[in-house]
Write a structure and sequence with these properties.
Blueprint lengths: L2 H16 L6 H8 L3 H7 L3 H25 L4 H18 L1 H11 L5 H22 L10 H17 L1 H8 L6 H27 L8 H7 L1
């Protein structure tokens, strides 16, 4: 492994453990086995190094979610595959979630995070609105639905210690993750059933002439 990769890995670990501001280049150098000068050679500032860690994570996330978006299967299969892939990614990259949540809570790289998320978010919105025009606006608007599903996944990981006490089981164990995937698949089914019902609901009849006259 070359020095740049070791620096990225060490920074990834420290940013996940203590956050951007508390992680020092000295600590990153010690953990990576590289000197501080080499860190500044590859990454001019600590913020630039943090951005590189984020960029690497989001490239990996896009690669993990891309197949579910691109598959030719049913909408349900694609959505369930997308949710499953996201759960698997967060389970396999615990530092990613901690880094992003700290930054969202008041960091300097929120815009960078949003820019990375936007293409995936837009792809999800397009997937829903093409299949169900009812998701273009209203209470079942595609952006709101996607944010709700994001919350169901993100909260499960972000509040895992609390969830463990609430449900009396380890949420991030293989059994806990498998159960949560089944739950999310059922939520997809309920969402699609609601969209089907919305699509098939008859449009309200226009008022008759007499009714219109009585209202004037």
């Amino acid at each position: 492994m070359d020095a740049k990769q070791r620096i990225l890995d060490a920074a990834d670990q420290l940013f996940g453990e203590v956050g951007l501001d508390a992680a020092t280049t000295r600590a990153i150098a010690d953990r990576s086995g590289a000197n501080k000068a080499l860190i500044h050679y590859h990454f001019t500032t600590k913020d630039e190094l943090f951005g590189a860690v984020l960029d690497r994570y989001y490239a990996q996330l896009a690669a993990a979610l891309g197949p579910a978006l691109a598959t030719e299967g049913s909408l349900r299969a694609r959505l369930v595959g997308l949710v499953d892939a996201y759960v698997d990614f967060l389970a396999g990259h615990r530092g990613f979630f901690r880094i992003v949540q700290r930054e969202i809570a008041g960091g300097r790289h929120v815009d960078r995070i949003a820019e990375h998320m936007l293409p995936l978010f837009r792809a999800g919105v397009a997937l829903l609105t093409q299949a169900y025009p009812a998701t273009r606006a209203g209470a079942l608007a595609a952006p709101s639905l996607l944010v709700s599903f994001y919350g169901m996944v993100a909260t499960y990981f972000g509040y895992a210690p609390v969830v463990a006490r609430l449900v009396g089981a380890e949420p991030l164990s293989p059994e806990g993750l498998a159960h949560h995937k089944r739950h999310l698949a059922r939520m997809v089914d309920l969402m699609l059933a609601a969209l089907e019902a919305e699509t098939q609901a008859p449009a309200p009849a226009p008022p008759r002439n007499g009714a219109r006259r009585r209202q004037t």
